[in-house]
Every structure is written in structure tokens, then in C-alpha cells.
Amino acid sequence: MEFIDPAIEEYSRAFSDPESTLLKELDRETHAMILQPRMLSGHLQGRFLSFLSKIHRPKLILEIGTYTGYSALCLAEGLVPEGKIITLDVNEELETFTRSFFVRSEFASKIDYRIADAKHEIPSISGPFDFVFIDADKRNYALYFDLVIEKMNSGGIILVDNVLWSGKIVDVKAQDKSTQALRDFNQKCLDDARVEKVLLPLRDGLLMLRVI
Fold first, then answer.
1. From CA 108, how far away is CA 207, in angstroms rounded?
2. Distance from the CA of 64 to the CA of which of 6, 50, 89, 208 falls in 20 to 30 A?
């Protein structure tokens, strides 16, 4: 499902800052070599992630779901000088490809890339987190939220991707487990007084949460 007319999206990209040469190469190589390239954040969403990170100036970012590293590189652009991003993924097959771009980045020393199951890894990370980006297996979104919420700094940002799930979220005929898990998660966040929230129809839906 297209939420925005492709011509409008292209116009929006044209009037946003360009992605770096490295990010452009990563986008191109992901589409050429990796399965499911639509999972990549891409130019417009990537600039949005970078923009938010630069506004917030986080010291510690946690990313759940690295894929090929595009979003991690964008988020790293806003880190304070002593800051770092911990990015977690379970896909060992992508590790060599993803690390090859991280090591070439100016943010290489700030990126802590771990092949690990977030359910088990997050409890071992002390935090506190200033910014969390959740973009992994949809059925565990509620669990990831529960694992990070008590480790967030006041005013911290939790950003959650794919919360509109290609429009299936509002399709009453869509009753698969992932869609229902996302409906339940969105409602869970709406009912949680610990966070302010706004859901943006950017790309596949971004839910922005600010910890009170």
C-alpha cells in the first residue's frame, strides 16, 4: 500500500538533504545483493532519522534490528563526540556485508554492532538510553518496549518502524499474527502514560514516543 503518491515522495527527496556517498553505495549494494531490500530505511527516512538524532544529540543510542546498517549510520550522525550506538541483529549472514560499511564510515569507532538476540542482550546493557530505534521482528515489539522503557532517560526518544504494516493495520480482513501484534502494540503505547506519542504515515509508519 502506498501512503504517499510516488511523485510526491520523489519531490520530497529532491528537496531534502542528499544522502552521503557511502549511504548511496550501501543502498545500491543492498538492492543488488541482499534479499528484501525494501527493509532498508532509504534516503528520506534516513534523513529523518539523522535529523532527529542531530536535534536530540544522544549519548547512547540502541537500535534493535540492524539489517545492512543504513539506519545505524544515519542515527550515528547526531551522536555527541563521546556517544555511541549499540545496534543488534540476529542475522549472521549479513554481518560481513554490514561491517564492511561500518568500518568505512567516519562513525566506525562509535558503532557497537552485535550479532545477538535482543531479548537476551538488552537486559545486559545498563543504559541509560537517550534514543532507541525498534525495527526488528514485529511480534516482539511489545517485549522490546518493556525491556527498554525503564532504561530510558527522561525526555528520551523511542522510535518504532513499520507500525502501519503496509496498510494492513487498518484492514479489518488482515488477521495474521504480525498485524495483530502491531495493533496490540500501538494500542499499548497509546494507553501508556509514561510516553507522549505521535504516529507518522512516513514510509511504512513511524511511531514516535517521548519518555516523560
1. 28
2. 6
